[in-house]
């Protein structure tokens, strides 16, 4: 019997040995997801408000940015930020570039979610607030957004889970996230079954946990 045939299909000892390396990659994945989503929800709200602005030039500019980002692949945008942007003199670390790419890409989708939420608030709400001399900013902050945000939390949560599953694309710009860490570990021993299986289980467990959390938050807000 050959040595290859005598090896077990899944070596639990090797899986335990490679787990710390994968956890280091997971820390990078979680960091990129949290920072990217924070940027996405913030920039997405700004783009949504710009698209609803009475100034047509501002609204058209926001719509153009949103459609361009939504219509081009995330991987291409990451390559542009990592390889082309430094030519202009602006350069970030690989992780910062990945966070920026994820945040901008998903901000375009979040902007459309925000816009749907804002448009779901009856027009009479803002008219009544302005009639009470609340001012546009206070009307938006205290009247419109508290009614617009709760219904769209599940949709924003879905994009959070989607961003988490898109983080392996960051390996294309040299970020050692979870999947890339498993590939590096596997290349050292030419055993990929254990690290890739663990990565799949980690993504599955965290995605299910995040989806459950989003449903709980959505139910509480409703």
TrEMBL record:
Domain of life (superkingdom): Bacteria
Membrane topology: Multi-pass membrane protein
InterPro entries: AA_ABC_transptr_permease_3TM, ArtM/GltK/GlnP/TcyL/YhdX-like, Ectoine_EhuD, MetI-like, MetI-like_sf
PROSITE patterns given in the database record: ABC_TM1
Pfam (any one): BPD_transp_1
Statement: the UniProt record of this protein carries the keyword Cell membrane: yes
Location in or out of the cell: Cell inner membrane; Cell membrane
TM regions (residue ranges): 26-50, 196-214
Keywords: Amino-acid transport, Cell membrane, Membrane, Transmembrane, Transmembrane helix, Transport
Domain annotation ABC transmembrane type-1: ranges: 22-214
Protein family: Belongs to the binding-protein-dependent transport system permease family. HisMQ subfamily.
Name of the featured protein: Ectoine/hydroxyectoine ABC transporter permease subunit EhuD
Gene that encodes it: ehuD
């Amino acid at each position: 019997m050959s040595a290859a045939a005598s090896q077990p299909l899944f070596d639990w000892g090797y899986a335990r040995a490679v787990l710390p390396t994968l956890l280091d990659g997971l820390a990078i994945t979680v960091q990129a997801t949290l920072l990217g989503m924070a940027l996405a929800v913030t920039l997405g709200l700004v783009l949504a408000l710009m698209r609803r602005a009475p100034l047509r030039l501002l609204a058209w500019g926001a719509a153009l940015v949103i459609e361009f980002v939504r219509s081009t692949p995330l991987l291409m945008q990451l390559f542009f930020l990592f390889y082309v942007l430094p030519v202009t003199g602006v350069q970030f670390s690989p992780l910062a570039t990945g966070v920026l790419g994820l945040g901008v890409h998903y901000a375009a989708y979040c902007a459309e979610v925000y816009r749907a939420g804002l448009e779901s608030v009856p027009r009479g709400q803002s008219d009544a607030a302005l009639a009470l001399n609340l001012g546009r900013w206070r009307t938006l902050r205290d009247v419109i957004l508290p009614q617009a945000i709760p219904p769209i939390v599940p949709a924003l949560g879905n994009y959070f889970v989607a961003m988490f599953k898109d983080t392996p694309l960051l390996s294309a710009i040299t970020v050692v996230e979870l999947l890339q860490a498993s590939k590096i570990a596997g290349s050292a021993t030419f055993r990929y079954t254990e690290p890739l299986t663990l990565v799949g289980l980690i993504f599955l467990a965290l995605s299910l946990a995040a989806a459950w959390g989003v449903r709980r938050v959505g139910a509480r807000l409703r």
